[in-house]
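To close the chapter, one final illustration. This time we ask the reader to focus less on the individual chains and more on the assembly as a whole: which components sit near each other, and how the overall shape emerges from the parts.
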Amino acid sequence: NAGVMQNPRHLVRRRGQEARLRCSPMKGHSHVYWYRQLPEEGLKFMVYLQKENIIDESGMPKERFSAEFPKEGPSILRIQQVVRGDSAAYFCASSRTGADQPQHFGDGTRLSIL
Amino acid sequence: DQQVKQNSPSLSVQEGRISILNCDYTNSMFDYFLWYKKYPAEGPTFLISISSIKDKNEDGRFTVFLNKSAKHLSLHIVPSQPGDSAVYFCAASAREADGLTFGKGTHLIIQP
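The assembled structure is written out below.
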């Protein structure tokens, strides 16, 4: 999974704190996606971004969650006032523009809420 | 409502034989299908994809078959190798750039 870089790999937060997850896409990739995986479940789509634009946020919870992909720097998934139910693995993927360009995933950030 | 279903949570196959992983979907708008392999504590690794204009796509030991009328796809791995032991996820989208809808995965175990 070299290429899509996510950090941190593990993040521990107490209830009520903020969590910031970072994702640097593969070189040449302009599309970024965030997914969440709960234990024993498949990955659930959250949001799709291109540089400075949110294209589809239909999978994002309405409150406390936000995402950005600025002109410079990594994409950020931000979770405010975390709760125990936010504990999960969060994966970022990136892809190129064009036909048959699959998404390539990072190794994820494991978020644990105490 | 699960739009992509992998009904076998696990599958055990002998080394050298064929592994067949199955996936069903309910959303008739899905037009692009992918298979990913995942090891513990790592992200999914892309294996192979197929668009709805085709019914078969091959890449080395991996072949994906798509039956649109049955809303069914399968991944064949021949011959199976010990390194193939992993969780395999089927994923789909209506357009290639869309976010993906994943199944819950099938844990493939290759027996020596």
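The two ends of chain A are 29 Å apart (CA to CA). Chain A touches chain B at residues 1, 4, 6, 31, 33, 35, 40-48, 55-56, 58-59, 91, 93, 95, 97, 99-108 (CB under 8 Å). With these observations in hand, you are ready for the problems at the end of the chapter.
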